[in-house]
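Consider what follows.

. . .
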Amino acid sequence: MMPVASLQFIRELPKVELHLHLETSLRLRRLAERRRGASDPARHPPGWPALSPPSHIADPARFTGYDRLRRLRYLSRAGSIADEWYTSENIEQITYELLEEAQRQHIRYVEVRVGGRRGFALLGAPRMLDAMAHARAQAEARLGVHCGFIMTIVRERGPEEAEQRVREAIAGRGGGVVGVDLAGDEQNYPPALFARPLGLARDAGLGITIHAGEFAGPAGVWTAVAHLGARRIGHGIRAVEDPELLTRLRDRAVTLELCPTSNLHLGLCPSIEALPLRRLLDAGVPVTVNSDDPLLLHTDLSRELHAVATAFSLDGAEVTSLVNNAARAAFAPIPAVP
């Protein structure tokens, strides 16, 4: 047997990441703390709550299901950023810093999701996306990192706002928008509610990825693929509950965006070893590994790949295959690296 891929090998491997949230508020907060001389976690500006570890936010004894997801992703950011921090200059800086982090990991191409309602409300989508596009151009020129943006639609905000987000995404294609993502409470807001906005995105040539098979079962994945034209599924781990669905995913080359540490903290699996990665691979389903919310989860793509390599005894060739799956499933052509 070949040796398990080492962390050093993975860090030096040219990589592609598809499921990465900008998480504007949290990154703005880090920027604000740095500018105010509060880089020490114990020294926050007056009135700003300290960031809680994800394990505390997602304490299984206190929260279950999607409520835990909301706590994990939003509670630590609520009310901690003043409106004046939402400027074009700051959005550009935090986007560029995210791409700098990608470059340090040898990530050649990354798709960054943005869906913060507050940022769009305060700046407007054109200014928000324009600021991100400036950072994208600088990162490409200075760092050699290429990226695309994915506009996130949040189910709880309803189909009407979803259509508005899609139209903004279509208008932003020239600035690097390559797709839309349907996220949020999949149990109470099934994908079929969003058929019209996602149809507009599909007709405009945008890629479609849908969070499904995370808190709800295989039915949402079926709808996302068969009726909404999803080319990728965010998480999707519960697809293993339906062998016929696995065959459909394989035959249509629908790619799953696995996020191991995220699933672990949300209580969707008791350990990395319990992820159905090997079963998905054995079924021929294209699988990728991603970091999801790296700033909040204290992780990055290299650590995620190393975690699954260790848990499932993956050698260098198998890890490289996961990265190649991501390259094939990208919503935009990946430029060749000189």
Q: What stands out?
A: Residues 7-329 form a domain with the TIM Barrel fold (CATH 3.20.20.140). The two ends are 33 Å apart (CA to CA). Strands lie at 15-21, 107-114, 146-154, 177-183, 207-212, 232-235, 255-258, 287-289. The first helix runs from residue 7 to 12.
